[in-house]
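INFO batch 0412 | record 1 of 1 | parsing
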Amino acid sequence: MIQDAFAMGPSAGGDGSDGPSFLISMAPFILMFLIMYLLLIRPQQKRQRDQQHMLDDLQNGDKVVTQGGIIGTISGLKADVVTVRVADNVKLEVQRSSISRVMSSKKGAKELKE
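INFO prediction complete | emitting tokens
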């Protein structure tokens, strides 16, 4: 029985640690988080920033597409509501956040003419 007790003694390193340091054992997790940040989180933040910038730059006369697929021209803007003209005498009020993209912009047309 005494020999069994000595077999469970500290390792030959002398410092009492039984494995690699904490930083080395955490390296795979740190590397995995870094890869997730670069491949998933950062591009999503950039997409959200671009979408918000596009929504802030909406103007009357811009041709837009809503998330529901409706194509129309902006005829009125309020803080959170956009009035979209989809046909003659047909106007829809949609939330600003439901605009998915701008197909053509009056601002872009002005820049091309100059």
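INFO post-check: The CA atoms of residues 28 and 95 lie 44 Å apart.
INFO record closed
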